[in-house]
Amino acid sequence: MAVSTTKATGSPDTPGATRHHRPVIESRSIDYVPLAERHGKVWHLFPVWFAGDAHLATIATGAIGVTLGGNLIWTAIAIVLGNALGTFFMAFHSTQGPQLGLPQMVQSRPQFGFVGALLVWVVALVTYIGYTAFNQVLVGSTMDHLADTPPSVSYIAYAVVGIVLAIVGYDFIHKASRWLTYLTGAGLAVFSVGIVVVAPFSADQLDLSAFTLAPFLIQLFHAAVYQLSWSIYVSDYSRYLPPTVGVRSSFWWTYLGAGFGGAWMMLVGAVAAGLFPKLGLVDAVVRAGDQLFDGFGGVLLLVSVIPLFTIGTLNFYGGSLTLLSSIDSVKRIPLTLGTRVTTLVVLGVASTGLAFSANDDFLTTFGDFLIVLGYLFTPWTAINLIDFYVVRRGRYSIREIFNPHGIYGRWNWRGLTAYGVGFASMLPFAVIGDLEGPLARWVKGADVTMLVGLATSSLLYLALCRSLDTGAERAVVTAADAGLDPDHAGHQAEAGQHA
């Protein structure tokens, strides 16, 4: 199935495929992907999200519980449970891509309004830039360790590689992820089997009776939030799939890929921190790998740092789509390859500048960053999923999403209210570094904000949407999107059935 060789115009009515071949460089950005251009297999989502999680930044997340005083066995349990929880919500976002054919963040307009969605887009941009900068710092320290490369050179090289690969786009990301899954999977398998045989784990590290609540819950929710933070990415990499793949298969391939990749790599971090608690992250990983045989630590480190370049590509690619969506809400611009490249360069300059200004206390800073992300994205996740699966049941107008004066309004008071109240409900339970909300002390410093935010935002949004006439809205959707896919009549009905 071919992708159009015409340039994207920003309109959902962009002409369909020329049907000859897919261009090397992706031509679309935030515009709708017509059914004639859909391609790929649903299992391809597994390697995208396995490789998306199997890297050094994920290792850092898995080391948090041990550094806070938890033992290895309870940290491992928290990692597995946290990944299971956070990936559950993330994977449901992935299923939206094939049904709507749109990038993830553009789908926020029906819940928050054409302009109101800027609220979550700004948060998403901060996330993309922040994660990229953290990854640049990791790559810089790793290459300094492996090859005495100055960190400044690595920062710039990382940005250049990520930008170039993001320009090539969607199909390359999927192909590269499959190869990286083979590479990282092999390295992780060797390490996992070998470390069980040779590692001198102490009895204290494996003592199930040595349970400490705060480190356990902090690790659990850090892992969950880490996976939840992928929610702003996932539809970007499933939107070219045909809607006939359905919700169930796209959910499970995403869930298994991200769940296995995330939990496995976090467990490597927990093991490295447990074996060598006084060493920094990079040195601990190397020493842990060298427990198998001399030199394998360097191999393990290299295997965990290579996927960071693909993650940089994901961050630049998704960040560009989000920045273009933000600009589109303020001023309509042609969505050409040139505008996409410009946004990529802007993001590269911003993340590189942040990387140059980063301090040495990386692990603590990264942990606090994850906490803040959890507070900001939890209400959005709840509202977006409740709207898609419960309120509107997958029935949206593609044309009206791009209409600044359309049926979704410029400011949607229901979504904005639920977001604000949901976020406020989390603050009394907040724990950021040494700062604790009043109710956080009541639960002895355990961060349960994610559960509070999800429940509050979901229930309030459902209550506010009781006054929404979805029947009348569906009639407008059907009329507005008539002829959207002239070669595939009935797309909206088909998408609604799959959702």
UniProtKB/TrEMBL annotation:
Entry's transmembrane regions: 45-66, 72-92, 112-134, 154-173, 180-202, 208-230, 251-276, 296-317, 337-357, 369-390, 411-433, 445-464
Chain residue ranges for the region called Disordered: 1-21
Name of the protein this chain belongs to: Allantoin permease
PANTHER family for the chain: PURINE-CYTOSINE PERMEASE FCY2-RELATED (PTHR31806)
Membrane protein topology class: Multi-pass membrane protein
Localization per Swiss-Prot or TrEMBL: Membrane
Principal cellular location given in the protein's record: membrane
Species classification: Bacteria, Bacillati, Actinomycetota, Actinomycetes, Kitasatosporales
Entry superkingdom: Bacteria
Source organism: Streptomyces rapamycinicus (strain ATCC 29253 / DSM 41530 / NRRL 5491 / AYB-994) (Streptomyces hygroscopicus (strain ATCC 29253))
GO cellular component, one term: plasma membrane
Protein family: Belongs to the purine-cytosine permease (2.A.39) family.
Keyword list, A-Z: Membrane, Transmembrane, Transmembrane helix, Transport
GO MF annotations, alphabetized: transmembrane transporter activity
Residue spans of biased composition, Polar residues class: 1-12
